[in-house]
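Deviation from plan, reported transparently: iron/sulfur cluster complex.
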Amino acid sequence: MTVEIDRNSGFCGGVIRAIDGAEKFLAEGGPLYSLGAIVHNESELARLRAKGLVTVSLDDISSPSPESLSGDASRRTLLIRAHGEPPETYRIAKERGWKVVDFTCPVVLKIQKSIREARERNAPDGQIVIFGKIGHAEVLGLVGQVGGDATVVENLAQLKEAIASGTIDLGRHVDIFSQTTKSPVEYEEICSYLSSRIADKALLSIHNTICRQVASRHKELAEFARSHDVVVFVSGKESSNGRVLSELCRSVNPRTYKVGSASELDSSWFRPEDNVGVCGATSTPKWLLEEVAVQIKNLH
Ligand code: SF4
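Because the crystal trials were delayed, the predicted structure below was used instead.
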């Protein structure tokens, strides 16, 4: 059996930037509190926790004297992760005296700005539509740019429903954006449908906001999955990108298995003559891919 790790898998630039920043900060003596999990990967979170990174919620930072937090309140520093946050979060953090280190991915910052500009440009009738996962941190940050006045659709069926119910009015201008990690194929399908329903093309602006790193990974990953007998996809359960990419692998290779760590591997998935490919999401650390690859080799 041969085992190959996908050289394009591993953290995206935004996640690398946030984790590097957190590690540098912690090395200088911390403490550091991350608003939400810095990365959707349990193993990497445990590694960073051991270095002193504490994950907190919006409730924690909103509370005047959060019981769950220890240490001197005046030394508390809040890390904003790559997903970004709505303006409201910065306001609350400031009000509660938190020092903020902002690692919002520059790509996400640019989309947040485009959404604000779209709102200004097409006011007062313009509508903002976001193709993304309802409740996902990045999406909440995007929606927050226009005070929550945006329609989020997770798929084509929800877009059709929103049009049918009048939530999206096709007689008024629509600006559509995508969460950075969504499937480029699905976004194209959604935009084509919207375009087919709007006769006056001046009423539709399609913003190409899928992260380039994600879009190119889709093509390369499909090729990688196709060229191996078995694919082991490594990703945390909470990773939205992990779900999308593992489904992509399964669509081209039915012998695709998704695991969170090496302990979830099952020897019955493999045959001695198999050529196994190990890959992961933008939130999967390289060291975890290597750990899984070593364990697969040890199974036979
Ligand atoms: S997927 Fe792209 S946009 Fe999202 S955090 Fe990573 S680099 Fe930034």
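The chain has three domains: 2-10+212-299, 13-105, 107-206. We consider this an acceptable substitute for the interim report.
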